[in-house]
Write a structure and sequence with these properties.
Order of helices and strands: EEHEEEEH
Distance between the termini: 41 Å
Radius of gyration: 16 Å
Helix content: 10-25%
Strand order of the largest sheet: 1-2-4-5-6-3
Number of strands: 6
Strand content: 25-35%
Number of domains: 1
Largest sheet: 6 strands, antiparallel
Shape: elongated
Length: 118
């Protein structure tokens, strides 16, 4: 079986979920990981902080996510030079599934206390 090259393929108005997004419970539904990754990618794509990094992600996926076309809406609601707040929403297979991502992006280094202990 030939697998697609990516989780999502770009289309004129968003993306198309491929077979790689299918979860283990139903062939018509996505695993939550691919939509979460797509929302995070879009948050980083619209960020206005050059060289910034994502320091906090909070996802709400409140219903099963169907396999099919995906549209992602994006806006920066709290712009800044060092910190910005970037929420995202997505529409999956022409049905609004509550899939939201709140992203906090920051400029500068962020030290993870767990990495220091290693």
């Amino acid at each position: 079986m030939d697998l697609p090259a990516a989780l999502y393929l770009p289309t004129d108005d968003g993306y198309l979920a491929t077979a790689l997004t299918i979860g283990p419970w139903d062939p018509g539904l996505q695993h939550a990981g691919p939509p979460a990754a797509l929302l995070a990618r879009e948050a980083e794509r619209v960020s206005a902080i050059d060289g910034g990094q994502t320091v906090r992600l909070a996802y709400d996926i409140l219903a099963p996510v169907p396999v099919g076309p995906v549209r992602v809406s994006a806006q920066v609601v709290r712009p800044g030079r060092r910190i910005e707040l970037v929420p995202r929403q997505a529409t999956f297979a022409l049905v609004m599934v509550e899939a939201r991502l709140i992203t906090l992006r920051s400029l500068g280094s962020v030290v993870c206390p767990f990495r220091q202990a290693m």
